[in-house]
Amino acid sequence: MKNNLFLDAAFSRPTERPPVWMMRQAGRFMPQYWEIKNKYSFLEMCKTPEIAADVTMLPVDLLGIDAAILFSDILVTGEAMGGELSFTQGVGPKFANPVRNAQDIDRLETEVTDRLQYVADAIKVIQQRLDGSIPLIGFAGAPFTVMSYLVEGGSSKDFKLTKLLIHNHPELAHRLLAKIAKVTTDYLNLQIAAGVNALQLFDSWALALSWNDYQEFSHRYNQDIISGLNRRNIPVISFCKGSSVFAPIMAEARPDVVSIDWNADLLNIKKALPADIAVQGNLDPHILYADQPVIKKQILRLFERMRGEQGFIFNLGHGIMPDIPFDNVKYAIEVVKEFKY
Ligand code: 1CP
User: Checking DSSP bridges between strand 85-88 and strand 236-240, what pairing results, if any?
Assistant: First the structure.
């Protein structure tokens, strides 16, 4: 790898500056994304390896980040299991056949890696394009977060149906979570076999859970997935919103990196974790709406706080919002790249 900063930091080795990539870096805040999006549906983009590769490469070419992330979505596992998935502009993801009872759960299939072969094909095209310049991060949704979309039938603010399922019918929730976890483990191993250099597990909506429910309905399954990966030399990043609170539990699943939302002081979190677990984060993405001197000040404040620490990857506490100015994202990356420990 010509640029090893990301992998070094992920494995808690020293780096000359923090590496940088951003969640949702291959997306809607880029005018160039819309040039492609206006011609194809979102799922067509994901399922056509050349197009998925084109979009993956946008932030590589235009922003100069230290790691690329596969262009896809966390819900492709739910679709492969039998969910009728669509994405509508302004509405977001929808499953037309939500999973609400034992029959629905039993109908979901678990031997589905063939249906996800298009992702392996995209990874191969992307690696040809990257040509050893920077690492490629693959990813999947964590079972709890994917379950929430399957059960609600789409996005949710309060996860009411998902919570009713786990509280009234925990045995059904566990059956569903175990099925998703099996598919997710196979899917991430498929991505490793196809050539990704790192993996991130996205449990975006774990923050909806209490401490006990997080352990029972999220952490257990993430742990099963992480321990089932053929992960030699492939760092695994565990992300959730809620990580400011859940980080010590997340660390028990033994990822290489825990990705932290913006509520916590990153150094305090790092110090509370085992020394060989790196942290990723944790700028509030809303800072990227602010004036550029503010962006610079906030990034440098984080870096001063983390000075002297090994195992720190700069990222946002969650993804870039679609209406964040492109120039501000570009500026933030320049600020990171000028910094020296
Ligand atoms: O209409 C469009 O242009 C589609 C918008 C879009 C994009 C660009 C969606 C629909 N997904 C994506 C790409 C995507 N999603 C990536 C690509 C790589 C990157 O640049 O980071 C990744 C990693 C994801 C993961 C994802 N999808 C998550 C986890 C991360 C997070 O942001 O919390 C979640 C929760 C989703 C669901 C999803 N897919 C798309 C939308 C709009 C949503 C969120 C909807 C909601 O709020 O529930």
Answer: unpaired
152 lines ligand 1 (CB under 6 A): no
Q: Which atom of ligand 1 is nearest to the CA of 69?
A: 18
Domains in the chain, ordered, with CATH?
5-338 (3.20.20.210)
Ligand 1 near 57 CB (within 6 A): no
HSE-CB for 88 with a 13 A CA cutoff:
6
Q: Is the CB of 203 under 6 A from ligand 1?
A: no
Bridge partners for 63 per DSSP: none
Query: Which amino acid is located at 144 in the chain?
Result: F
**Ligand 1 neighbour 24 (Cβ under 6 A):** yes
Angle at alpha carbon of residue 270, lines to 268 and 274, rounded to 5° = 130
Mutate-to-test residue for ligand 1 from 73, 95, 159, 237, highest number of ligand atoms within 8 A of CB: 73
The distance in angstroms from the start CA to the end CA of the chain is: 22
Query: H-helix or E-strand containing 79?
Result: helix 76-80
**DSSP letters along 26-54, please?**
SSTTSHHHHHHHTTS-HHHHHHSHHHHHH
d(CA 320, CA 316): 8
Report the separation in Å between the CA atom of 175 and the middle of ligand 1, taken as the mean of its atom positions. Answer: 26
pLDDT in tens, 305-327: 999 999 999 999 999 999 999 99
Q: Which two tokens stand for residue 62?
A: 């235009």
Q: How does pLDDT run across 77-132, given as a tens digit for each residue?
A: 999 999 999 999 888 999 999 999 999 999 999 999 999 999 999 999 999 999 99
> Does the beta carbon of 153 sit less than 6 angstroms from any atom of ligand 1?
no
pTM here? 0.97
- Tell which atom from ligand 1 comes closest to the C-alpha of 154: 48
Ligand 1 binding pocket includes 97 (Cβ within 6 Å): no
Position 55: which residue type?
Answer: V
